[in-house]
Automatic annotation (TrEMBL):
Stretches assigned to coiled coil: none
The organism's taxonomic lineage, starting at the top: Bacteria, Bacillati, Actinomycetota, Actinomycetes, Kitasatosporales
Protein name as annotated: NmrA family protein
Superkingdom of source: Bacteria
SUPFAM superfamilies in alphabetical order: NAD(P)-binding Rossmann-fold domains (SSF51735)
Length: 172
């Protein structure tokens, strides 16, 4: 589809965000685990991700839609740092004052956890566990300066995101 865009439109942009910081603060399974028992479960091993804040995605989209000329390219959006899930747990502990750990699971353990605990259909659970495995293999270990270049301000760090919206208790 992306190859067709230049032939279909004079001006275009495709936003390609990395994984969302909100996965650790909203209603996502990781945020629920943090609130429930202080545990982030993944099969990401030591893999790192340039997590991006949804507000940075929105700011970049506004820029792409309102500038005089669209960038006519794919815009890979990340935060300013690539973090492993151990890093996420440590930062969450520091910001919230509540112990948070990253429990390293195998692909099979993650798939089964998603199926049995999160009640996700087996095929979808296998796909999600496979995405974790891809992270473990380095597929998401990158950062870009796209947010800074397009919006004129630095992308939000994970720590800054948490300080704004940390998942402190099960009542949130």
């Amino acid at each position: 589809m992306h190859q067709c865009l230049p032939d279909l439109f004079e001006q275009w942009a495709v936003l390609r965000p990395s994984w969302f910081m909100q996965n650790f603060t909203g209603t996502h399974m990781h945020a629920a685990g943090i609130r429930a028992d202080g545990t982030i479960r993944s099969a990401t091993a030591g893999g790192r991700v340039g997590f991006v804040d949804a507000d940075d995605i929105a700011a970049t989209a506004v820029h792409a839609l309102t500038v005089g000329h669209a960038p006519n390219t794919d815009l890979v959006l990340t935060g300013p740092e690539a973090l492993g899930y151990d890093d996420i747990a440590a930062i969450t502990t520091e910001v919230t004052g509540r112990p948070v750990v990253h429990r390293h699971l195998s692909y099979e353990e993650m798939r089964d956890h998603l199926t049995l605990t999160a009640l996700i259909p087996p095929e979808f659970a296998a796909m999600l566990a496979g995405l974790d495995r891809a992270i473990a293999e380095g597929a998401e270990d990158r950062v870009t300066d796209t947010v800074q270049r397009l919006t004129g301000r630095p992308a939000r760090t994970f720590r800054a995101h948490l300080e704004r919206s940390a998942p402190v208790s099960s009542g949130q």
